[in-house]
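Box S1 | Example of a co-folding query
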Amino acid sequence: MPPPVFVSQPIPERGLELLRRERIAFEINPAGRILSGDELIAHLAGREWLLCLLTDRIDATVIRRCPSLKGIANCAAGYDNIDLAAATARGILVTNTPGVLTETTADLTWALILGVARRIPEADRYTRAGRFTGWGIGLMAGHDVHGKTLGIVGAGRIGVAVARRAVGFGMRILYHSPVACAEIERCCGARRADLKSLLRESEIVSLHVPLTPATRHLIGKRELGLMRPDACLINTSRGPVVDEVALVRALREGRIAGAGLDVYEREPELAPGLAGLENVVLLPHIGSASIETRSRMAEVSVLSLLKMDGQCL
Ligand code: DGY
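Box S1 (continued) | Returned holo structure for (2R)-2,3-dihydroxypropanoic acid
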């Protein structure tokens, strides 16, 4: 019998230590790269538990062809990489790691907000290139953040944490959510708005929705067209929430002022033209990438394997 737990990609040591401490036999994907569906299926033969990352696609075929699988611990808050309906139909438990990455992702969102508005990466490139020949009154002038309107799309944990930080910047906060969020209203004075009004009124629009059929291309040509010409779009949620081709066009034509992206529609690929634009800040999906948080995510994933319905291991 193979060890019951398969770890699809190396995870931080804290998670592995916990597996060892609990004397749980596991195998880490020996290939040192992301496995294809067929490879994953081969590795999961006879195993019951999978610890995977958001870059592993656990689709209906994988689920169908892994009859011994009982539980999947996804080391991420988002779980759009897993066919939840197929897993549920088979009675496979699926867990994620919400909560532990909230503050870290909110910090990174703010790094993007400030980076885009104040043109920080662009100014850094300029300085390194030896082009700084002296102070100039218009040199690298960006947009203020304090006192502006921040539009939060999705008032879940991360959306609320981003709004909390905005209070310190004296911002007016709008939020869009299918249900009212008492916390964001109480602690941040945020006002609920429909998406159109939020897009029309906000200088910074920050996306914090999960990827679902309803949120795919939530921000497309029409929505970008509603935004102010001095507005920035920030996305630390999931790439397909934004129509990236429409975004490139809007940025190129100056219909919005800038964008800060941590996620992409076809990761790790970027839409043609995106990387050539000066008014964007592009990060390689590092929203939760602090050493502390990634360790905690690994630990929580292992803890959920241990707890899965008391039936694990
Ligand atoms: C998540 O957990 O969903 C994040 O995108 C990982 O950085």
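The mean pLDDT is 97. Residues 291-307 form the longest helix (17 residues).
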